[in-house]
Amino acid sequence: MNVVDPNGARWTVRRRVLPWRRRVHGVEGLGDLADFVPVDDGLFGFIAGLVLIPVVLVFALVIGEVLVLLLLLPVFVLLRVAFGRPWIVDVYRGEQYVRSERVVGWRAAGERVDTIADEIRAGLVK
């Protein structure tokens, strides 16, 4: 849930499904290679190949990670529900991590997200 506090700062309050926080938030573009590389086709092809091979490998690794996470997601959800493991509620101010809380129960965690969001809107959370 996205919330704005009285000072205009943007906050995010959410229930975490996976037991860890993702560290990668975005990947910057490479820009236009033609601005940095001479126009000679042979040299351009060689340099483009040197740049594109790592990019393709990183892209493949990211896709592989997403597929593994999608396969593990139902397992984590079932384990949390079956064994009564707490859901983790994360609070971020912009991109900066503020805190986490452990709440037992899906519904209770959702209610806690709403409560924290209301506290942020009222200016009670700093």
Fold and architecture overview:
About 9% of the residues have low confidence. A four-stranded antiparallel beta sheet has the order 1-2-3-4, covered by helices on one side. It starts with a strand and ends in a 5-residue tail after the last helix. It has one domain. The longest helix is centred in the middle third of the chain and has 43 residues. It is 47% helix and 20% strand. The chain has 126 residues and is α+β, with helices and mostly antiparallel strands.
Secondary-structure class: alpha+beta
**How many domain regions?**
1
The share of residues in extended strands comes to 15-25%
The amount of helix comes to 40-55%
Separate helix tally: 2
Mean of pLDDT: 82
Give the beta-strand count.
Answer: 4
Query: Any idea what the shape is?
Result: flat
Biggest sheet character: 4 strands, antiparallel
Rg over alpha carbons: 21 Å
Low-pLDDT runs: 27-37
Spatial strand order of the main sheet: 1-2-3-4
Report the end-to-end length measured between terminal Cα atoms: 17 Å
Order of helices and strands: EEHEEH
Please give a handful of descriptors for the protein shown.
single chain, 126 residues, alpha+beta, 4-stranded antiparallel sheet, 2 helices, 4 strands, 47% helix
